[in-house]
Each structure stands twice: as structure tokens, then as C-alpha cells.
Design goal:
This protein is α/β, with parallel strands linked by helices. The chain has one domain: Isochorismatase-like (Rossmann fold, 3-Layer(aba) Sandwich), CATH 3.40.50. Helices cover about 20% and strands about 20% of the residues. The strands form 2 sheets. Strands 5-2-1-6-7-8 form a 6-stranded parallel β-sheet, sandwiched between helices. The longest helix is centred in the last third of the chain and has 14 residues. The radius of gyration is 16 Å and the shape is globular.
């Protein structure tokens, strides 16, 4: 079991939005099934929590239909590096871009919106996809003296993994609550997916279960 310190531990609820759930524009398989687990963590386990929210303008450059001749889930080179092209999703002001209505939002102390700059995508809660332009989250967490971040939400292999990698790079002790996440798991090289590659990049012991808390 992991003993939590309410003064220095915080839960990050990542992109729990209908756009990423069955029936949404970019559905993650079983994405809706994590909400009860996250709500239990919010109600019973963590004293502090914040959320992230994907928030795209309709002409965002990460959308496949912004690049004629390119299909969703293909990749192109952008000034900041390779970029996966996505179906149009999380459109600013749309119902599917809102945090899911079943999520216990009363326990969320802050919401970080990301991906609102048209010209650059943003997976991580800490930085845009150039890995240098900050969202301001690091300053917020340091000002409140948080030291350990526990990640839940969607998707394990993209916004959760990139956020966790940046948290580690910034010096936070970092955990991913695996049963409170779901992955896209796009195929990459033979026998590998974006999920298996994310797990390779991250120390395996950082993946825990909600029952460990």
C-alpha cells in the first residue's frame, strides 16, 4: 500500500470528456468505465485534485481534415516534430468537450485547458507538444508545495503518459493509476503499440492500481 500525504499529494484527472468516450469523436475503448473509479478516488482517497481538458479550435492543425489528402491516425512533420493527425474532437464550447457530467467535479480545484493554440497540439498537462512551452501547471503545483502526482484518465499512452513523463522530468514523484486509465493503443512497429512503448519509456513500478492506495 502507498501511504498518501494530503499536504503534498495530488490527483490529476486527465481529459475525462465525452469526446474520448464511446459515442464521441475520438473514442477510447471503455473510456467511460473509469469514471466510478476516479469518483471514488476523489471522494475517498485524495484531499487535492485537478483536471485537464482538451479544448481545440475547429481549425486546429492536429486535425486530419486540416491537411487535405491525409487520413486520421497518420503522421506528418510539424515545426515541433512528428504529429499524429486526429479526427476532429474536443471542439471548444461543445458538449463533448466538457468534462463528463458524471465526473465529481466538485472535488476539482483547478482545470488546465490544453490544445487551444491552433498551431500546436498539447498532450501533456505541463507543456505544449514542443515540450518547452509551459501551461503554467508546474508553477501552480510548486506554489502549493505538491511533490507527488497521481495520474488517472485518458488516454494512458498519450496525454497521461506525456504528462507523467514531464512530471518526472520536472522532479515530481509520479504514479499512473492504471485501472483508472484507458489507452488508445495504436499499432506502431510489429508487436508494439503506443501503449507498450509508453510503458517502456516509463519506469514500470510507476504503474499502480487504485487498490494500492
Amino acid at each position: 500500500m502507498i501511504t498518501l500525504d494530503p499536504a503534498t499529494d495530488i490527483l490529476c484527472v486527465t481529459d475525462v470528456q465525452p469526446t474520448f468516450m464511446p459515442g464521441g469523436e475520438l473514442p477510447v475503448a471503455e473510456g467511460d468505465t473509469i469514471i466510478p473509479t476516479i469518483n471514488r478516488l476523489l471522494a475517498e482517497t485524495f484531499a487535492h485534485a485537478f483536471a485537464t481538458q482538451d479544448w481545440h479550435p475547429p481549425d486546429h492543425t492536429s486535425f486530419a481534415d486540416s491537411h487535405p489528402g491525409h487520413k486520421a491516425f497518420s503522421a506528418i512533420a510539424m515545426p515541433y516534430g512528428p504529429q499524429t493527425l486526429w479526427p476532429r474532437h474536443a471542439l471548444q464550447g461543445s458538449a463533448n468537450a466538457a468534462l463528463h457530467p458524471d465526473l465529481n467535479q466538485a472535488r476539482l480545484e483547478m482545470i488546465i485547458r490544453k490544445g487551444f493554440h491552433r498551431e500546436i497540439d498539447s498532450y501533456s498537462a505541463f507543456f505544449e507538444n514542443d515540450r518547452t512551452t509551459p501551461t503554467g501547471l508546474d508553477g501552480y503545483l510548486r506554489a502549493r508545495f505538491f511533490q507527488r502526482i497521481f495520474f488517472a484518465g485518458l488516454a494512458t499512452d498519450y496525454c497521461v503518459a506525456w504528462s507523467a513523463e514531464d512530471a518526472i522530468r520536472l522532479g515530481y514523484t509520479t504514479f499512473i493509476i492504471e485501472d483508472a486509465c484507458r489507452a488508445i493503443a495504436l499499432p506502431t512497429t510489429p508487436g508494439q503499440t503506443t501503449l507498450s512503448e509508453a510503458k517502456t519509456r516509463l519506469t514500470p513500478t510507476r504503474f499502480i492500481l487504485s487498490t494500492d492506495l
